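Usage example:
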Amino acid sequence: MNFHLLLKELNFLHECRKLRWGIWQCPPFLVIANGCITIAAMIGTYLLASRFVEEPEIAALIVMGVAAFLIIIGSLMVKGFNEIAEAHRIKSEFITIVSHQLRSPLSIFKWTVDLLNRISKKEELSQRHEWENSITTLHNTAENMIRLVNLLIEVSRIESATAIFRKKALSLPAETEKILRDFQSYARAFRITVAFRPDASLPSVEGDEERVAIVIHNLIDNAIRYTAGGGQIVIRIARKGSFLAWSITDQGMGIPEDQKAFIFQKFFRAGNVVDKQTRGSGIGLYTVKAITEAMGGAVGFESQEGKGSMFWFTLPIARDQSNQ
Amino acid sequence: MKKILFIEDEQALQRAATQVLHEEGFEVLSAIDGESGVRIAESEHPDLILLDLILPKKHGLEVVKELKQNPATARIPVIVLSNLSEDTDVEKAVELGAVTYLVKTNYGLSEVVEKVKQALGE
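Running the assembly step on the lines above writes:
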Protein backbone atom coordinates (compact mmCIF):
# COMPACT_ATOMS: atom_id res chain seq x y z
CA MET A 1 0.00 0.00 0.00
CA ASN A 2 2.80 2.44 0.97
CA PHE A 3 4.54 1.65 -2.32
CA HIS A 4 1.39 2.62 -4.22
CA LEU A 5 1.10 5.86 -2.26
CA LEU A 6 4.76 6.58 -2.98
CA LEU A 7 4.22 5.97 -6.69
CA LYS A 8 1.22 8.30 -6.61
CA GLU A 9 3.30 11.02 -4.93
CA LEU A 10 5.98 10.61 -7.61
CA ASN A 11 3.41 10.80 -10.41
CA PHE A 12 3.69 14.58 -10.67
CA LEU A 13 2.69 14.58 -14.35
CA HIS A 14 -0.73 13.30 -13.33
CA GLU A 15 -1.00 16.14 -10.77
CA CYS A 16 0.02 18.75 -13.36
CA ARG A 17 -2.45 17.35 -15.89
CA LYS A 18 -5.21 17.68 -13.25
CA LEU A 19 -4.32 21.36 -12.85
CA ARG A 20 -4.20 21.80 -16.65
CA TRP A 21 -0.53 22.84 -16.67
CA GLY A 22 1.62 22.17 -19.70
CA ILE A 23 4.79 20.15 -19.13
CA TRP A 24 6.99 23.26 -19.33
CA GLN A 25 4.82 24.93 -16.63
CA CYS A 26 4.90 21.92 -14.31
CA PRO A 27 7.27 22.84 -11.41
CA PRO A 28 7.94 19.24 -10.22
CA PHE A 29 8.91 18.22 -13.78
CA LEU A 30 11.10 21.32 -14.15
CA VAL A 31 12.88 20.62 -10.83
CA ILE A 32 13.65 17.04 -11.86
CA ALA A 33 14.64 18.09 -15.38
CA ASN A 34 16.88 20.78 -13.92
CA GLY A 35 18.49 18.23 -11.60
CA CYS A 36 19.09 15.71 -14.41
CA ILE A 37 20.47 18.37 -16.73
CA THR A 38 22.78 19.67 -13.98
CA ILE A 39 24.16 16.17 -13.35
CA ALA A 40 24.54 15.50 -17.10
CA ALA A 41 26.16 18.89 -17.57
CA MET A 42 28.69 18.27 -14.78
CA ILE A 43 29.61 14.84 -16.13
CA GLY A 44 29.70 16.05 -19.73
CA THR A 45 31.75 19.12 -18.90
CA TYR A 46 34.27 16.98 -16.96
CA LEU A 47 34.61 14.48 -19.84
CA LEU A 48 34.89 17.15 -22.53
CA ALA A 49 37.24 19.30 -20.49
CA SER A 50 39.51 16.35 -19.73
CA ARG A 51 39.59 15.47 -23.47
CA PHE A 52 40.15 19.02 -24.75
CA VAL A 53 42.40 20.17 -21.91
CA GLU A 54 44.81 21.76 -24.44
CA GLU A 55 41.96 23.89 -25.79
CA PRO A 56 40.55 25.50 -22.73
CA GLU A 57 38.49 27.95 -24.85
CA ILE A 58 36.32 25.07 -26.08
CA ALA A 59 35.87 23.81 -22.52
CA ALA A 60 34.92 27.34 -21.44
CA LEU A 61 32.41 27.67 -24.30
CA ILE A 62 30.84 24.34 -23.40
CA VAL A 63 30.55 25.36 -19.74
CA MET A 64 28.99 28.72 -20.75
CA GLY A 65 26.50 27.01 -23.04
CA VAL A 66 25.48 24.57 -20.35
CA ALA A 67 25.19 27.38 -17.79
CA ALA A 68 22.93 29.35 -20.18
CA PHE A 69 20.72 26.29 -20.65
CA LEU A 70 20.49 25.83 -16.87
CA ILE A 71 19.54 29.49 -16.44
CA ILE A 72 16.70 29.04 -18.95
CA ILE A 73 15.40 26.00 -17.09
CA GLY A 74 15.72 27.91 -13.80
CA SER A 75 13.74 30.83 -15.25
CA LEU A 76 10.99 28.48 -16.38
CA MET A 77 10.87 27.05 -12.86
CA VAL A 78 10.61 30.49 -11.28
CA LYS A 79 7.87 31.40 -13.79
CA GLY A 80 6.01 28.23 -12.86
CA PHE A 81 6.20 28.99 -9.14
CA ASN A 82 5.10 32.58 -9.76
CA GLU A 83 2.08 31.31 -11.67
CA ILE A 84 1.15 29.02 -8.80
CA ALA A 85 1.45 31.90 -6.33
CA GLU A 86 -0.61 34.18 -8.61
CA ALA A 87 -3.30 31.51 -9.05
CA HIS A 88 -3.48 31.15 -5.28
CA ARG A 89 -3.75 34.91 -4.82
CA ILE A 90 -6.49 35.19 -7.46
CA LYS A 91 -8.39 32.36 -5.81
CA SER A 92 -8.26 34.09 -2.40
CA GLU A 93 -9.26 37.41 -3.89
CA PHE A 94 -12.10 35.76 -5.79
CA ILE A 95 -13.45 34.09 -2.64
CA THR A 96 -13.30 37.37 -0.67
CA ILE A 97 -15.07 39.39 -3.33
CA VAL A 98 -17.67 36.74 -4.14
CA SER A 99 -18.47 36.12 -0.47
CA HIS A 100 -19.20 39.80 -0.01
CA GLN A 101 -21.23 40.02 -3.22
CA LEU A 102 -23.37 37.05 -2.19
CA ARG A 103 -23.72 38.16 1.43
CA SER A 104 -25.28 41.47 0.39
CA PRO A 105 -28.43 39.99 -1.17
CA LEU A 106 -28.56 37.36 1.58
CA SER A 107 -28.75 40.13 4.21
CA ILE A 108 -31.64 41.67 2.31
CA PHE A 109 -33.35 38.28 2.30
CA LYS A 110 -32.80 37.70 6.01
CA TRP A 111 -34.08 41.11 7.14
CA THR A 112 -37.02 41.15 4.72
CA VAL A 113 -38.16 37.73 5.95
CA ASP A 114 -37.81 39.03 9.55
CA LEU A 115 -40.03 41.94 8.58
CA LEU A 116 -42.62 39.71 6.91
CA ASN A 117 -42.67 37.57 10.03
CA ARG A 118 -43.48 40.60 12.15
CA ILE A 119 -46.12 41.84 9.70
CA SER A 120 -47.80 38.42 9.54
CA LYS A 121 -48.43 38.61 13.29
CA LYS A 122 -50.47 41.77 12.84
CA GLU A 123 -53.85 42.09 11.25
CA GLU A 124 -53.73 45.72 10.21
CA LEU A 125 -54.57 46.30 6.54
CA SER A 126 -52.16 49.22 6.54
CA GLN A 127 -49.33 46.67 6.63
CA ARG A 128 -50.46 45.10 3.36
CA HIS A 129 -48.49 47.61 1.25
CA GLU A 130 -45.32 46.82 3.22
CA TRP A 131 -46.04 43.09 2.81
CA GLU A 132 -46.30 43.45 -0.99
CA ASN A 133 -43.14 45.58 -1.09
CA SER A 134 -41.30 42.93 0.88
CA ILE A 135 -42.40 40.12 -1.45
CA THR A 136 -41.21 42.16 -4.46
CA THR A 137 -37.88 42.77 -2.68
CA LEU A 138 -37.44 39.05 -2.04
CA HIS A 139 -38.24 38.20 -5.66
CA ASN A 140 -35.84 40.83 -7.09
CA THR A 141 -33.09 39.86 -4.65
CA ALA A 142 -33.40 36.19 -5.59
CA GLU A 143 -33.16 37.11 -9.29
CA ASN A 144 -30.04 39.22 -8.64
CA MET A 145 -28.39 36.41 -6.69
CA ILE A 146 -29.15 33.90 -9.43
CA ARG A 147 -27.72 36.27 -12.02
CA LEU A 148 -24.55 36.76 -9.99
CA VAL A 149 -24.04 33.05 -9.41
CA ASN A 150 -24.60 32.37 -13.13
CA LEU A 151 -22.04 35.02 -14.01
CA LEU A 152 -19.52 33.48 -11.60
CA ILE A 153 -20.07 30.04 -13.09
CA GLU A 154 -19.60 31.51 -16.57
CA VAL A 155 -16.32 33.16 -15.51
CA SER A 156 -15.13 29.88 -14.05
CA ARG A 157 -16.03 27.99 -17.24
CA ILE A 158 -14.27 30.53 -19.44
CA GLU A 159 -11.11 30.44 -17.29
CA SER A 160 -10.97 26.67 -17.20
CA ALA A 161 -11.71 26.49 -20.95
CA THR A 162 -14.65 24.17 -20.32
CA ALA A 163 -17.35 26.44 -21.76
CA ILE A 164 -19.13 24.80 -24.70
CA PHE A 165 -20.58 27.31 -27.14
CA ARG A 166 -23.72 26.12 -28.91
CA LYS A 167 -23.64 28.41 -31.94
CA LYS A 168 -26.61 28.96 -34.16
CA ALA A 169 -28.06 31.72 -36.35
CA LEU A 170 -29.54 34.46 -34.15
CA SER A 171 -31.37 37.69 -34.79
CA LEU A 172 -29.57 40.36 -32.74
CA PRO A 173 -32.54 42.78 -32.93
CA ALA A 174 -34.93 40.08 -31.65
CA GLU A 175 -32.57 39.06 -28.83
CA THR A 176 -32.15 42.72 -27.85
CA GLU A 177 -35.89 43.38 -27.81
CA LYS A 178 -36.47 40.36 -25.56
CA ILE A 179 -33.97 41.66 -23.03
CA LEU A 180 -35.21 45.26 -23.25
CA ARG A 181 -38.68 44.07 -22.19
CA ASP A 182 -37.16 42.80 -18.90
CA PHE A 183 -35.50 46.16 -18.33
CA GLN A 184 -38.59 48.33 -18.75
CA SER A 185 -39.44 48.88 -15.08
CA TYR A 186 -35.73 49.06 -14.10
CA ALA A 187 -35.12 51.82 -16.67
CA ARG A 188 -38.27 53.66 -15.50
CA ALA A 189 -37.04 53.55 -11.88
CA PHE A 190 -33.81 55.24 -13.01
CA ARG A 191 -35.78 57.68 -15.25
CA ILE A 192 -33.98 56.42 -18.33
CA THR A 193 -35.59 56.27 -21.78
CA VAL A 194 -34.26 53.63 -24.13
CA ALA A 195 -34.13 54.21 -27.88
CA PHE A 196 -33.54 51.08 -29.96
CA ARG A 197 -32.41 51.82 -33.56
CA PRO A 198 -31.36 48.73 -35.48
CA ASP A 199 -30.71 49.10 -39.21
CA ALA A 200 -33.32 47.55 -41.50
CA SER A 201 -32.99 44.01 -42.91
CA LEU A 202 -30.05 42.85 -40.82
CA PRO A 203 -28.77 39.32 -41.39
CA SER A 204 -28.48 36.80 -38.54
CA VAL A 205 -25.29 36.40 -36.55
CA GLU A 206 -23.63 33.22 -35.40
CA GLY A 207 -23.61 32.89 -31.64
CA ASP A 208 -24.62 31.01 -28.52
CA GLU A 209 -28.06 32.35 -27.63
CA GLU A 210 -27.69 32.14 -23.85
CA ARG A 211 -24.30 33.85 -23.90
CA VAL A 212 -25.31 36.56 -26.35
CA ALA A 213 -28.12 37.32 -23.87
CA ILE A 214 -25.53 37.61 -21.05
CA VAL A 215 -23.50 40.11 -23.13
CA ILE A 216 -26.51 42.28 -24.05
CA HIS A 217 -27.94 42.09 -20.53
CA ASN A 218 -24.66 43.22 -18.93
CA LEU A 219 -24.14 46.15 -21.29
CA ILE A 220 -27.72 47.43 -20.89
CA ASP A 221 -27.56 46.96 -17.10
CA ASN A 222 -24.33 48.97 -16.90
CA ALA A 223 -25.65 51.75 -19.15
CA ILE A 224 -28.74 52.21 -16.95
CA ARG A 225 -27.05 51.74 -13.59
CA TYR A 226 -24.22 54.18 -14.23
CA THR A 227 -26.45 56.95 -15.58
CA ALA A 228 -27.53 58.77 -12.45
CA GLY A 229 -30.39 61.26 -12.52
CA GLY A 230 -32.16 60.20 -15.70
CA GLY A 231 -31.31 60.46 -19.40
CA GLN A 232 -31.43 58.48 -22.59
CA ILE A 233 -29.59 55.40 -23.78
CA VAL A 234 -29.45 54.51 -27.47
CA ILE A 235 -28.87 51.03 -28.84
CA ARG A 236 -27.87 50.61 -32.48
CA ILE A 237 -27.17 47.59 -34.63
CA ALA A 238 -25.49 47.97 -38.01
CA ARG A 239 -23.64 45.84 -40.52
CA LYS A 240 -19.85 46.23 -40.68
CA GLY A 241 -18.49 44.02 -43.43
CA SER A 242 -18.91 40.39 -42.38
CA PHE A 243 -19.93 41.36 -38.83
CA LEU A 244 -22.86 42.99 -37.10
CA ALA A 245 -21.89 45.76 -34.69
CA TRP A 246 -24.12 46.26 -31.63
CA SER A 247 -23.55 49.47 -29.66
CA ILE A 248 -25.06 51.19 -26.63
CA THR A 249 -24.53 54.87 -25.88
CA ASP A 250 -25.34 56.39 -22.48
CA GLN A 251 -25.16 59.80 -20.84
CA GLY A 252 -23.67 58.40 -17.66
CA MET A 253 -20.63 59.08 -15.54
CA GLY A 254 -18.10 57.91 -18.14
CA ILE A 255 -14.72 56.35 -17.42
CA PRO A 256 -11.66 58.27 -16.15
CA GLU A 257 -8.81 58.33 -18.69
CA ASP A 258 -6.30 56.61 -16.39
CA GLN A 259 -8.64 53.67 -15.77
CA LYS A 260 -9.72 52.90 -19.34
CA ALA A 261 -6.96 50.32 -19.78
CA PHE A 262 -8.35 48.19 -16.93
CA ILE A 263 -12.05 48.29 -17.71
CA PHE A 264 -12.25 44.69 -18.97
CA GLN A 265 -10.18 43.24 -16.15
CA LYS A 266 -11.78 40.86 -13.68
CA PHE A 267 -13.12 42.56 -10.51
CA PHE A 268 -12.12 46.01 -11.77
CA ARG A 269 -14.58 48.81 -11.08
CA ALA A 270 -13.56 52.37 -11.96
CA GLY A 271 -13.04 54.70 -9.02
CA ASN A 272 -15.78 57.15 -10.01
CA VAL A 273 -18.27 54.29 -10.19
CA VAL A 274 -17.41 52.73 -6.81
CA ASP A 275 -17.75 56.15 -5.26
CA LYS A 276 -21.36 56.47 -6.39
CA GLN A 277 -22.69 52.94 -6.76
CA THR A 278 -21.39 50.27 -4.42
CA ARG A 279 -23.34 47.40 -5.97
CA GLY A 280 -21.50 45.67 -8.77
CA SER A 281 -19.34 42.56 -9.04
CA GLY A 282 -16.65 43.84 -11.42
CA ILE A 283 -16.92 40.71 -13.55
CA GLY A 284 -19.62 41.83 -16.00
CA LEU A 285 -17.36 43.45 -18.59
CA TYR A 286 -14.70 40.76 -18.15
CA THR A 287 -17.37 38.20 -19.04
CA VAL A 288 -18.66 40.29 -21.97
CA LYS A 289 -15.16 40.42 -23.49
CA ALA A 290 -14.43 36.74 -22.92
CA ILE A 291 -17.74 35.58 -24.39
CA THR A 292 -17.63 37.89 -27.41
CA GLU A 293 -14.08 36.93 -28.32
CA ALA A 294 -14.84 33.24 -27.88
CA MET A 295 -17.63 33.63 -30.46
CA GLY A 296 -15.27 35.24 -32.99
CA GLY A 297 -16.23 38.84 -32.28
CA ALA A 298 -14.65 41.84 -30.59
CA VAL A 299 -15.62 44.36 -27.91
CA GLY A 300 -14.60 47.94 -27.19
CA PHE A 301 -15.73 51.32 -25.94
CA GLU A 302 -15.32 55.07 -26.14
CA SER A 303 -15.91 57.18 -23.10
CA GLN A 304 -15.55 60.65 -21.64
CA GLU A 305 -15.70 61.12 -17.88
CA GLY A 306 -18.79 63.08 -16.87
CA LYS A 307 -20.30 62.86 -20.38
CA GLY A 308 -21.01 59.19 -21.03
CA SER A 309 -19.82 56.05 -22.78
CA MET A 310 -20.42 53.99 -25.88
CA PHE A 311 -19.81 50.26 -25.55
CA TRP A 312 -19.91 48.02 -28.60
CA PHE A 313 -19.42 44.42 -29.60
CA THR A 314 -19.33 42.65 -32.94
CA LEU A 315 -20.36 39.15 -33.91
CA PRO A 316 -19.76 37.35 -37.22
CA ILE A 317 -22.68 37.17 -39.62
CA ALA A 318 -24.04 33.61 -39.93
CA ARG A 319 -22.32 31.77 -42.78
CA ASP A 320 -25.39 31.17 -44.93
CA GLN A 321 -26.33 34.86 -44.61
CA SER A 322 -23.01 36.53 -45.33
CA ASN A 323 -23.78 36.91 -49.03
CA GLN A 324 -27.02 38.80 -48.35
CA MET B 1 -37.44 59.02 22.32
CA LYS B 2 -33.92 57.91 21.48
CA LYS B 3 -32.64 58.78 17.97
CA ILE B 4 -30.82 56.22 15.80
CA LEU B 5 -28.97 57.22 12.62
CA PHE B 6 -28.75 54.33 10.12
CA ILE B 7 -26.10 54.88 7.43
CA GLU B 8 -26.72 52.25 4.74
CA ASP B 9 -26.99 52.54 0.93
CA GLU B 10 -29.22 49.47 0.42
CA GLN B 11 -32.81 50.73 0.46
CA ALA B 12 -34.41 47.39 1.33
CA LEU B 13 -32.26 47.18 4.46
CA GLN B 14 -33.04 50.80 5.36
CA ARG B 15 -36.76 50.10 5.04
CA ALA B 16 -36.70 46.91 7.11
CA ALA B 17 -34.55 48.32 9.91
CA THR B 18 -36.45 51.63 10.07
CA GLN B 19 -39.79 49.82 10.44
CA VAL B 20 -38.57 47.59 13.23
CA LEU B 21 -36.69 50.30 15.13
CA HIS B 22 -39.82 52.51 14.96
CA GLU B 23 -41.87 49.68 16.45
CA GLU B 24 -39.34 49.38 19.24
CA GLY B 25 -39.85 53.04 20.08
CA PHE B 26 -36.88 54.68 18.39
CA GLU B 27 -36.81 57.67 16.08
CA VAL B 28 -34.84 56.70 12.95
CA LEU B 29 -32.78 58.98 10.72
CA SER B 30 -31.48 57.60 7.41
CA ALA B 31 -28.42 58.33 5.29
CA ILE B 32 -27.58 56.50 2.07
CA ASP B 33 -23.92 57.50 1.76
CA GLY B 34 -20.95 58.29 3.97
CA GLU B 35 -20.91 62.05 3.36
CA SER B 36 -24.56 62.65 4.25
CA GLY B 37 -24.14 60.29 7.20
CA VAL B 38 -21.47 62.52 8.71
CA ARG B 39 -23.50 65.65 7.93
CA ILE B 40 -26.66 64.29 9.61
CA ALA B 41 -24.70 63.06 12.62
CA GLU B 42 -23.23 66.55 13.08
CA SER B 43 -26.57 68.34 12.73
CA GLU B 44 -28.94 65.90 14.50
CA HIS B 45 -26.69 64.43 17.27
CA PRO B 46 -28.29 60.94 17.28
CA ASP B 47 -27.99 58.75 20.37
CA LEU B 48 -26.46 55.90 18.36
CA ILE B 49 -25.23 55.29 14.81
CA LEU B 50 -25.63 52.05 12.84
CA LEU B 51 -23.07 52.15 10.05
CA ASP B 52 -22.39 50.08 6.94
CA LEU B 53 -18.80 50.10 5.64
CA ILE B 54 -19.14 49.83 1.86
CA LEU B 55 -20.83 53.16 1.14
CA PRO B 56 -20.89 55.59 -1.76
CA LYS B 57 -18.95 58.87 -1.43
CA LYS B 58 -17.15 57.98 1.80
CA HIS B 59 -16.10 54.60 3.19
CA GLY B 60 -17.61 53.63 6.57
CA LEU B 61 -14.17 53.54 8.25
CA GLU B 62 -13.60 57.14 7.11
CA VAL B 63 -16.98 58.02 8.62
CA VAL B 64 -16.01 56.49 12.00
CA LYS B 65 -12.70 58.34 11.92
CA GLU B 66 -14.34 61.71 11.19
CA LEU B 67 -17.05 61.25 13.80
CA LYS B 68 -14.53 60.37 16.49
CA GLN B 69 -12.26 63.28 15.60
CA ASN B 70 -15.15 65.77 15.92
CA PRO B 71 -15.83 66.66 19.60
CA ALA B 72 -19.52 67.20 18.75
CA THR B 73 -19.95 63.58 17.58
CA ALA B 74 -17.09 61.74 19.31
CA ARG B 75 -19.24 60.36 22.13
CA ILE B 76 -21.99 58.91 19.91
CA PRO B 77 -21.69 55.10 20.04
CA VAL B 78 -21.17 53.55 16.59
CA ILE B 79 -22.19 49.99 15.75
CA VAL B 80 -20.69 48.78 12.47
CA LEU B 81 -23.07 46.58 10.45
CA SER B 82 -21.20 45.17 7.47
CA ASN B 83 -20.83 42.06 5.34
CA LEU B 84 -17.06 42.48 5.33
CA SER B 85 -15.70 40.09 7.91
CA GLU B 86 -11.92 40.08 7.51
CA ASP B 87 -10.15 40.37 10.88
CA THR B 88 -8.37 43.45 9.55
CA ASP B 89 -11.72 45.21 8.93
CA VAL B 90 -12.99 44.39 12.42
CA GLU B 91 -9.74 45.45 14.11
CA LYS B 92 -9.59 48.68 12.14
CA ALA B 93 -13.21 49.60 12.99
CA VAL B 94 -12.72 48.92 16.70
CA GLU B 95 -9.40 50.77 16.71
CA LEU B 96 -11.12 53.82 15.20
CA GLY B 97 -13.77 53.73 17.92
CA ALA B 98 -16.69 51.50 16.91
CA VAL B 99 -18.28 49.89 20.00
CA THR B 100 -19.39 46.73 18.18
CA TYR B 101 -18.85 45.10 14.77
CA LEU B 102 -21.72 42.97 13.48
CA VAL B 103 -21.61 40.90 10.28
CA LYS B 104 -25.02 41.62 8.72
CA THR B 105 -25.84 38.10 7.51
CA ASN B 106 -25.25 36.75 11.02
CA TYR B 107 -27.80 38.98 12.75
CA GLY B 108 -31.55 39.18 12.31
CA LEU B 109 -33.44 42.42 12.92
CA SER B 110 -34.41 41.50 16.50
CA GLU B 111 -30.78 40.73 17.34
CA VAL B 112 -29.67 44.07 15.90
CA VAL B 113 -32.29 45.83 18.05
CA GLU B 114 -30.93 43.96 21.10
CA LYS B 115 -27.41 45.17 20.34
CA VAL B 116 -28.71 48.73 19.90
CA LYS B 117 -30.44 48.57 23.30
CA GLN B 118 -27.31 47.10 24.93
CA ALA B 119 -25.13 49.88 23.50
CA LEU B 120 -27.61 52.48 24.80
CA GLY B 121 -27.56 50.85 28.23
CA GLU B 122 -31.24 49.89 28.11
